[in-house]
Amino acid sequence: MPSADRIAPIRGADHAAVLDAALEARAGGRVPLVGDERWTQDHWDAVVRTVRSHGVPPEADWATFTSGSAGSPRVVLRTEASWRTAYPAVTALLDARAGDRMLIPVHPVSSMALNAAAHARATGLGVCVPAGARLRAADLTGLAGSGGPDLMHGTPWQLRDLVDLLDAGTGTVLRSVLVGGDRLDPALAARARAHGLRVASYFGAAELSYVAADTGDGLLPLDGVDVQVRDGVLWVRTPQRALGTVGADGHLTAGPLQDDDGWVTVGDRARLQDGVLVPAGRADEAILTAGATVVPADVEAVLGGIEGVQAALVVGRPDTLLGQRVAAYLEPAPGAVLDAAALRRIRSAAGERLAVAQRPRHWRTVPELPRTGSGKVRRLDAGQAEALAVRPDASPAEGRA
């Protein structure tokens, strides 16, 4: 089979069917490429063309999305073995048992969902997905007499939904939750454990998969994974390393991975404290929102190419539900007025060109963005950027996606 023909594009509103189709494609020797049904058809077609344009190496088994705009999609390619090597650790973290059913509330476009489904299939677990975007009581108690799930593999905000339901009196047979995608608030973990749930969290990256896990004593590297911190940056040696990243030109590259004689990094900052890994965010200032990693430069490039925008600054604002909220600060082009109508047009154009996770949820206009000596927009934190913004009562050009 030609390498380009091995790609199996899959997306749809029935997430259970999407995950099943991805697993069947993989079993048939094809490489599943799972998209988001909310993307425009043009965006999806462009992504598929990009991946197919260069084909995939014969050892590739999975293609999963990481951050990237519609104009420059980035897809991580990896082998089946790179995931399978961590399955025993995942099974132990979940305390998974024969006959268990696992709830996967993460959207199938996420590598977390595909990994969870692949782990379940390989270890004989059943799989179920929520009926909607947010967990509801019926997702825990079961539908049509099917019974509820025993396990869940999701994100901190999905754990929050779960705990809120349990606090409200929803019954469940769920006993264990594995949490990834962002830092788990210890208070939330304590609330979950108060309901008798086993809670484990992990730290990783799309290109490295599972790096370290925490069952209550801090993040400790998984068996077979070695970690070092050099000048505040985390380096990892792991058999879970991906093959590489498909760039905008369709060629396979190292992507964000930097390699030093088998030790690799994606730029995460961290420290080691008595053997416990303490992450400190991405060195490239990436935004972690709802389990997705958003690179500000990707979003800024799209926004800066929209009529009426001279430049854009994208930052992450703290958000109790999403972890971080993507925020955009727009400098008008000379002679342009970014009023409410203009901002609606910009938001619509951005929505067509950006992946869902990349779309700003917080918009502000600024008279002028500060520049470095070379003329580039200077990096600011969320507080500094907000201090520059035109206040809502001074301009109608502010809104939420």
From TrEMBL:
Gene3D superfamilies, A to Z: 3.30.300.30, N-terminal domain of ligase-like (3.40.50.12780)
Chain segments annotated as coiled-coil in the UniProt record: none
Domain of life: Bacteria
InterPro entries registered for this protein in UniProt: AMP-bd_C, AMP-bd_C_sf, AMP-dep_synth/lig_dom, ANL_N_sf, ATP-dep_AMP-bd_enzyme
Span of domain AMP-dependent synthetase/ligase: 64-217
Pfam families xrefs: AMP-binding, AMP-binding_C
Residue span(s) of domain AMP-binding enzyme C-terminal: 299-376
The protein's name in its UniProt record: AMP-binding protein
